[in-house]
């Protein structure tokens, strides 16, 4: 289950743009912790780490359409009118421009926010001139009576399923998105069985977007303890995960993104798996406040506690934004080549092949991704392996004769010296004895 089974070539591509149930607002839309506009002046650490100040001299994402399939995106002023409606699987008439959960607006802000220079705000998106296509696919605050396999009579559930995610991918691709960000994951235990019909539908949608529409697909790797993901990193054997995370499972099409912490370590909540592609900043996030015209750096948990914004959901948009920059700077590259650029220029971990299951090919390096010369893009074939046999010089045969002669000569000299000393000592002793006898007789 580390890799999904291949999909039949004739598997139908899902389509549609209507919600799968009638959803109603059951909880209040997200509010703000501030009483007014919050202008956080400091730059997020991830922005400094990825060198935005230097990055934007090469590209800004201008003209590139990035789809954000999420909880909707509010047309925040810092987007500068670059948000366009794409669809809504929660309340159709809203067209993705309502964000009661706040998640989608924060994700989109990391991609394309651009506060005015006169505000002295340090924060901005990685692709500050990209356009955002918003498609609302899920919401924890909206619930409806949805039919499931377990309950054909229906039950009240929050909006968002793998089926609507699949339709949202196709909808975004058909509207011209060049990059799609999916900071929404579904986790299930491997023990639950083989690939499901809903997973096949998502696989078909991703294949369609990637192969037929040439879209760069980016997804978050998943957070431990959330949405069915395991409480631990996903098993002790990296090649036998205990849980499957979708969309990342479909690694032939998707760039899945793990989260890094400020200290350079992988974030403790980031789910590992053989499908993880790269990593990006995912802690201490600053982004757009979905309830005001300012910024936010805190979120409120279900128990009322406040915590910093974090998660692989917010690492993925750094990579989606980087893909937009690459697509602007290198407009002729295919989606696969964009993905290769991101992987080849990442800061590889000290692991066999420069990749592991926790951070993939490593922390992204946007400057490298925009400036590195990749021979394959110039039509230069990879270097062929050479069958070169190691030819060692013949062993040196040591002539020990001179050494033996020298040792024998040295030994002879030592013996002669010892013999001489013995003779001299004996002669002196005899002479002293004779002198004592002569004195005694006198």
From TrEMBL:
Matching InterPro entries, A to Z? Peptidase_S8/S53_dom, Peptidase_S8/S53_dom_sf, Peptidase_S8_Asp-AS, Peptidase_S8_His-AS, Peptidase_S8_Ser-AS, Peptidase_S8_subtilisin-like, Peptidase_S8_subtilisin-rel, T7SS_pept_S8A_mycosin
Q: Keywords in UniProt for this one?
A: Cell membrane, Hydrolase, Membrane, Protease, Serine protease, Transmembrane, Transmembrane helix
Residue ranges annotated as transmembrane are: 405-424
What GO annotations for molecular function exist for this entry?
A: serine-type endopeptidase activity
List the GO cellular component terms: plasma membrane
Stored PROSITE patterns:
SUBTILASE, SUBTILASE_ASP, SUBTILASE_HIS, SUBTILASE_SER
Please report the stretch or stretches of sequence annotated as the Peptidase S8/S53 domain.
Answer: 61-362
Per the record, membrane topology reads: Single-pass membrane protein
The record's PANTHER family line, in alphabetical order, gives:
CEREVISIN-RELATED, PEPTIDASE S8
Protein name according to UniProt: Protease
For this protein's source organism, the top of the classification is:
Bacteria, Bacillati, Actinomycetota, Actinomycetes, Pseudonocardiales
């Amino acid at each position: 289950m580390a890799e999904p089974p291949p999909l039949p070539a004739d598997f139908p591509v899902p389509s549609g743009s209507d919600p799968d149930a009638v959803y109603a607002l059951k909880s209040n839309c997200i509010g703000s912790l501030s009483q007014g506009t919050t202008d956080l002046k400091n730059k997020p650490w991830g922005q400094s780490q990825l060198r935005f100040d230097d990055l934007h001299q090469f590209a800004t994402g201008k003209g590139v359409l990035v789809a954000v399939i999420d909880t909707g995106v509010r047309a925040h002023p810092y987007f500068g009118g670059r948000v366009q409606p794409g669809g809504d699987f929660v309340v159709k008439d809203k067209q993705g421009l309502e964000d009661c959960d706040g998640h989608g607006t924060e994700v989109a802000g990391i991609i394309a926010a651009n506060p005015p220079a006169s505000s002295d705000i340090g924060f901005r998106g990685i692709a500050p001139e990209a356009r955002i296509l918003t498609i609302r696919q899920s919401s924890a605050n909206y619930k409806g009576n949805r039919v499931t396999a377990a309950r054909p009579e229906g039950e009240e559930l929050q909006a968002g399923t793998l089926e609507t995610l699949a339709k949202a991918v196709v909808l975004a691709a058909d509207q011209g998105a060049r990059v799609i960000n999916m900071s929404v994951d579904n986790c299930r235990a491997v023990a639950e069985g083989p690939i499901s019909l809903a997973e096949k539908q998502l696989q078909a949608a991703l294949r369609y977007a990637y192969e037929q529409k040439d879209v760069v697909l980016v997804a978050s790797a998943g957070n431990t303890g959330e949405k069915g993901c395991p409480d631990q990193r996903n098993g002790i054997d990296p090649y036998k995960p205990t849980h499957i995370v979708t969309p990342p499972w479909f690694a032939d099409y998707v760039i899945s993104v793990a989260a890094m912490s400020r200290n350079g370590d992988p974030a403790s909540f980031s789910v590992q798996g053989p499908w993880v592609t790269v990593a990006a900043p995912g802690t201490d996030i600053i982004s757009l406040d979905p309830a005001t015209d300012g910024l936010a750096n805190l979120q409120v948990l279900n128990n009322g506690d406040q915590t910093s914004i974090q998660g692989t959901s917010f690492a993925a948009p750094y990579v989606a934004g980087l893909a937009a920059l690459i697509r602007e700077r290198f407009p002729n590259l295919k989606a696969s080549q964009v993905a290769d650029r991101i992987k080849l220029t990442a800061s590889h971990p000290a692991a066999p092949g420069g990749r592991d299951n926790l951070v993939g090919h490593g922390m992204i390096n946007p400057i490298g991704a925009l400036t590195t010369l990749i021979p394959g893009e110039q039509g230069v074939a990879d270097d062929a392996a050479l069958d070169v046999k190691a030819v060692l010089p013949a062993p040196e045969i040591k002539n020990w004769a001179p050494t033996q002669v020298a040792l024998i000569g040295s030994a002879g000299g030592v013996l002669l010296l010892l013999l001489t000393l013995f003779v001299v000592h004996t002669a002196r002793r005899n002479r002293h004895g004779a002198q004592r006898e002569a004195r005694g007789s006198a």
